[in-house]
Design brief:
- It is a single chain.
- The protein is 26% helix and 30% strand.
- With 125 residues, it is of the alpha+beta class.
- It is globular and about 40 Å long.
- It has helices at 2-14, 38-44, 60-64, 83-90; strands at residues 31-35, 50-55, 71-75, 78-79, 98-107, 110-119.
- The protein starts with a helix and ends in a 6-residue tail after the last strand.
- It has four helices and six strands, in the order αβαβαββαββ.
- Strands 1, 2, 3, 4, 5 and 6 form a six-stranded antiparallel beta sheet that branches.
């Protein structure tokens, strides 16, 4: 029904249209991402998203407080279910762009949502 589609359409209309960024200007988080597969969700109760398996020193991710074990579920308003989703959406962001990233953090009470602001850096070798 249109009542279900209307909020989605309104959200899309408010989003900024972005162009793909050339490889030399593309922004990077500074993490090693791993997709949380369905089996991990079933076996360990992990939320669907991208598991941060490593955070590199001196990167935007480190400065924003991301740590190994966080699970990225949203990037600048875009739902993230896999590493491919994250890499696909990041093709539209440049070095120096600031984005809000929603992560789930494990705690004794379960998974807790947290939003951090990250300034994307340049690719490192």
């Amino acid at each position: 029904p249109i009542s279900a589609a209307k909020p989605i359409i309104e959200d899309l209309m408010l989003r900024e249209t972005r162009m793909k960024v050339s490889e030399d200007k593309k922004g990077y988080l500074g993490i090693t991402p791993l997709t949380v597969v369905d089996q991990m969700t079933q076996d360990y109760g992990m939320p669907k998203g991208v598991y941060v398996s490593q955070v590199y020193e001196g990167t935007g991710a480190e400065q924003a407080g991301l740590v190994k074990g966080n699970i990225i579920t949203e990037f600048d308003g875009n739902k993230i279910n896999s590493s491919e989703d994250l890499l696909r959406v990041m093709e539209y962001y440049s070095v120096g762009d600031t984005v809000d990233v929603t992560v789930m953090q494990g705690s004794p009470q379960g998974w807790e949502s947290k939003t951090v602001t990250i300034t994307l850096g340049a690719k490192f070798d």
